[in-house]
Amino acid sequence: MKAAGVSARARTVLAAIRRHGSVSRAVLIRETGLSGTAIFRATEELEIAGLARAGETVAAGRGQPSNIIHIVPDAAFALGLSVMTDRADVVLLDLAGCVRARAEITMPGMPRAALLDAAAAFGTEALSSLGIEPSRLNGLGIAVAGFFVGPDMVNPSGELEDWALVDLRADASRRLALPVVVENIASAAALGERMLGVGSRYGSSCYINVASGFGAGIIVDGVLMRGRHGNAGEIAGLFPMAGRVTPNLATLRACLADHAVPTAGIADMVARFDPAWPGVEAWLAEHQPSFSYLFGVLRRTLDCEAMILGGRLPRVLARRIVDAVEWPETTLTDRRATRAPMTLLDVASLEPDLAGPLGAASLVFHRTLFD
Q1: pLDDT at 46 over 70
Q2: Which pTM value belongs to this model?
Q3: Which of 30, 244, 262, 343 could disulfide-link 239, Cβ–Cβ 3.0 to 4.6 Å?
């Protein structure tokens, strides 16, 4: 899945160019630690491969003017597919990290083969409409709501039976004749938010994905932390271990139903959500202590710059939860009149159904061009 003919050094430089979109060689020297000669040769290599181009020159201190190196957006594309219990989405991402097309492809029962075929057909049609040859599609990233039990094999909830305990990478690669990357949906969403959402403000963050289930994706110094088995961020189990209720959208929907607010499913509830609905306050009162507990645990274990509350949780509700979080140490005596630095709390800015497939698509580039 590596870029043919492009050296490891050039891939490192390409990743740095992509972070900026356009960047001078002088900045690349500072960021990568490579020599000026090495940077020149790497960018020249990327130009020959059609992945980057040299543009205008700018003054770079007392030395010679430095070329601005630009990413070539249409040089490569990737598809990202997210599969949740009641919704499937697909995006087409270009090399610059821009979403060029997106679609919802939800099907009853979420059949694996049909969804994979629909994602591939979407990619073919989208590339054709852009006038891009199919050979520029680098692969498909799949994000599934479930935990890993083996390489590329997930164990999702009962609604996704067709996706369970199957080598998804091998299956999808055979079916579509494309390189395939498989990831947990919370981790993929964390990457998506890091690319185009509020996560881009932070070097290290924990993205908390609230949907029909509950999970997290952890970014450390801009890199996804997967853990030994790919299950870093499987935090839902913390709640019952601590004797606390697990907050998710399934319990919110049930609480609304108990207060005579019927919904046709989680997607319907999210689309029509009204913070004034009867039952919202009752759900918050029951689950806010769980969120405060979780944020406290994550802050102490991860010490990341920010925690971002997202997933399919309505953003107005996420804001209320974040604003009401109580840090445990505020009730304790401080030490030498000084407390440990607080972790920032933020609310995801990307649309709930975009972050997952966006992150999944970005993983394709990381495996094929940047690693």
Answers
A1: yes
A2: 0.90
A3: 244
